[in-house]
Amino acid sequence: MHEIIAKQGLSPNVTRLDVKAPRIAQIRQPGQFVIVHLAEGAERIPLTIADADPERGTIALVIQAVGKSTRDLVALEPGQAIAGIAGPLGKPTELIEKGRALCVGGGVGTAVVHPIAQGLKRRGIPVHSIIGGRSREWVIFEPELRQLGEVTVCTDDGSYGRKGFVTDAARELLAAGGIDMVYAVGPVPMMRAVVNLTRPLGVPTIVSLNPVMVDGTGMCGGCRVTVGGQTLFACVDGPEFDGHHVDFDGLMDRLGTYREFEQRASQACEAGQCRVGLH
Hints:
By secondary structure, this protein is of the alpha/beta class. It folds into two domains: 88 residues, Translation factors (Elongation Factor Tu (Ef-tu), domain 3); 155 residues, Nucleotide-binding domain of ferredoxin-NADP reductase (FNR) module (Rossmann fold, 3-Layer(aba) Sandwich), CATH 3.40.50.80. 28% of the residues lie in helices and 32% in strands.
């Protein structure tokens, strides 16, 4: 059992849970994730380790409530617990040894960018983060990223920071030169747009993929992606890949595979026909 130590609402549908997981907190590395199993009969959900406190023995999970399973998770309160957390899983981020890095985070992807920026900062790599949201209330992890380097905030409606998309700010920064590596995490269209900016400039770009994942060990095959014409598995070969070689169209198709089933599950719960036990 993994007790919830703290809970914080980051945006209208994004919640941070700080959870007891001492062994994971000690050994996790940037880019790695966990598989969370709330209770018996619940779905297994992959979540990035957004932060960790080895002394307290806690890890931070950032959850976007978009379906039944994620809504069940964010309904937890401090003192309650998650039945199982497996990890850390996946390959750690390939952090550059020298040069200057640009981290681009869109929406909840900003939480995934945070540990990458942390790892770069520890190596002495200058980091500029560009993060965005629909409006001010949707911008997350800004204070944490400002402790690690320069930050540019973008909002679609201009209510905070500069008006426009993160790709607009990234285009300007890349045009100025001096960026040796880009790490981009967010909605698939955003990551594809960033890749389209960096490819002609020859700037290496790492993206974090989020296909449907079940076991996190490569056995189920649900998280397969096509990278450089090869079929790979996000859980064991990733979740981060060279963005210049990712088949984003195929990824979009796979992300929609279970959309109808998720809608049915949500509708059933709204009708009071399901319940997951909390401990």
